[in-house]
Design a protein that fits this description.
The complex is a heterodimer of chains A (224) and B (119).
Chain A (H helix, E strand, L loop, with lengths): L1 E5 L2 H7 L5 E7 L2 H4 L5 H17 L5 E7 L5 H4 L3 H7 L3 E4 L4 H9 L4 E4 L1 E11 L2 E6 L15 H4 L16 E2 L2 E5 L1 H11 L34
Chain B lengths: L9 E4 L8 H9 L5 E5 L10 H18 L7 E5 L5 H18 L11 E4 L1
Parallel strand pairs in B: 1-4, 2-3, 2-4
The chains are: A alpha/beta (224), B alpha/beta (119).
The structure holds iron/sulfur cluster (SF4) (2 copies).
The site of one iron/sulfur cluster has 10 residues of chain A, from α7.
Chain lengths: 224, 119
């Protein structure tokens, strides 16, 4: 999933400082699963913003709508009615940053703000802990590395590791960070494929990644 | 045991403090409560195992939110006591009321006044 986390409340407060009525909109997709921008988090942020503004003696009106997803136009359409009827000063999106961009595209005259920092593609390690697992390089090669991704999970994105900083299974950047190359070694060893680690993995063609510019997938079989 | 505790404390019963949500605490503050505390069972004594520990974390979260928006985090608190400690219940109610009196009225203001929660 796409993993995100709330921006600091102070930052969101300053974004909406000039407004008296906003729409706060959540997403039931990834950001609900990572407890960052679902219906519940929308309620909590709305309440925190209202408390902060009441405290200043400048109340703010906040409507809350959590969409099925914010990364599909048909769900963004569902904001048409409330936006047309309620005269919001701005929309604040708690989806990953795809959401606010979709809202901005659809509602050309509306000010739109992101409430989350979209952080990485990853998964949960335990309840309340998430980690990065993929960098969306566009040409997955994890089969070369025991199905573990050194691009996303090695601090240097080494394709031939480990570096000299690997110690006791940890990466030299922090004791908190596993050295993925240590994990790759252990896994290859368990699979009896250590000999494969002697193969040099050649340079990666990064044009499939961000280096090739913004990416797009067109599926003629699905397009209408 | 007929113990008296300050009448400004409004008790809201929940089956277990694990039911107390971040939003419940925030809404109390949003609606003008000067303070809100959660009275849970002693740690390790939760009938549902970890309800009071979850409540403790949620109280800590709300404290952080209040701090972030420039409000006194002491307006929200977690207390632990057993169902047999009636005297302690009254004592906590007085203790917290005194703390709130020291802090003064909530800058959020409203008719609703300091609330408490017990489970
Ligand atoms: S190799 Fe590329 S696509 Fe595969 S997991 Fe790593 S970053 Fe993601
Ligand atoms: S210690 Fe391991 S994870 Fe860290 S940079 Fe070196 S090879 Fe990569």
């Amino acid at each position: 999933m796409v993993v995100g986390e709330s921006k600091p409340i102070e930052e969101i407060l300053s974004m909406v400082a000039d407004f008296n009525k906003i729409l706060l909109t959540g997403c039931k997709g990834c950001v609900t699963v990572c407890n960052a921008g679902g219906q519940k988090e929308v309620g909590i942020l709305a309440s925190a913003l209202k408390i902060a503004r009441k405290k200043e003696g400048r109340e703010i009106e906040i409507d809350e709508i959590t969409l099925e997803r914010q990364c599909d136009p048909e769900y963004i359409d569902q904001l048409e009615d409330p936006i047309a009827k309620n005269g919001y000063d701005a929309v604040v999106s708690m989806a990953c940053s795809v959401g606010p961009q979709y809202i901005a595209k659809h509602y050309e005259d509306m000010l739109v703000f992101p409430a989350l920092n979209t952080t990485f593609i990853g998964g949960s390690l335990e309840h309340g802990v998430w980690a990065e697992f993929c960098q969306a390089c566009g040409a997955c090669g994890i089969h070369n590395f025991g199905a573990l991704c050194p691009i996303a999970r090695c601090a240097k994105s080494l394709l031939n590791g480990p570096c000299g900083g690997s110690a006791g299974g940890k990466c030299e950047i922090s004791q908190e960070t596993d050295c993925v190359w240590h994990l790759i070694y252990e896994r290859m060893s368990r699979l009896g494929q250590l000999d494969k680690m002697a193969n040099v993995v050649m340079f990666k063609d990064w044009t499939s990644s961000r280096d090739g510019g913004p990416r797009k997938i067109v599926r003629e079989d699905l397009k209408q | 045991m007929r113990l008296s505790y300050p009448s400004n404390v409004k008790v809201i019963n929940v089956p277990c403090t694990g039911r107390v949500d971040i939003l419940h605490l925030l809404k109390a503050i949003e609606d003008g409560a000067d303070g809100v505390y959660v009275a849970g069972c002693l740690e390790g004594d939760c009938h549902y195992l970890t309800g009071n520990l979850k409540a403790k974390k949620r109280v800590a979260y709300v404290k952080k939110v209040l701090e972030d928006i420039g409000m006194e985090p002491e307006r929200v608190e977690m207390y632990n006591l057993s169902a047999a400690q009636g005297t302690r219940f009254a004592e906590i109610a007085r203790e917290f009321t005194e703390r709130i009196l020291d802090l003064g009225p909530s800058p959020v203001g409203s008719e609703a006044k300091s609330g408490g929660e017990a489970a």
